[in-house]
Amino acid sequence: MKTGIVEFFENLPPKLCSNCGKEIEEQHECYGNSCFSCIGIKDLD
Fold first, then answer.
1. Distance (Å, whole) CA 26 – CA 32
2. How far apart are the first and last CA of the chain?
3. What dihedral do alpha carbons 15, 16, 19, 21 form, nearest 10°?
4. Tens place of pLDDT for every residue, the chain, 45 residues?
5. 26 in Cβ contact with 34 (< 8 Å)
6. Most exposed of 12, 25, 39, 44 (fewest Cβ within 10 Å)?
7. Phi, psi (degrees; rounded to nearest 5) at 3
8. Is the pTM higher than 0.85?
9. How far apart are CA 43 and CA 23, in angstroms?
């Protein structure tokens, strides 16, 4: 069963920002739905 759960999370589509539609660079299963730009945080790169 663990293999199925891991597969599920690996196959989730990229998460998109609810404000601008940009792909969010974070874990897909997290609760946040806005990118760093839209919440006023500079990129961490």
1. 9
2. 36
3. 180
4. 566 888 888 888 888 999 999 998 776 567 888 888 898 887 655
5. no
6. 44
7. -60, -40
8. no
9. 13
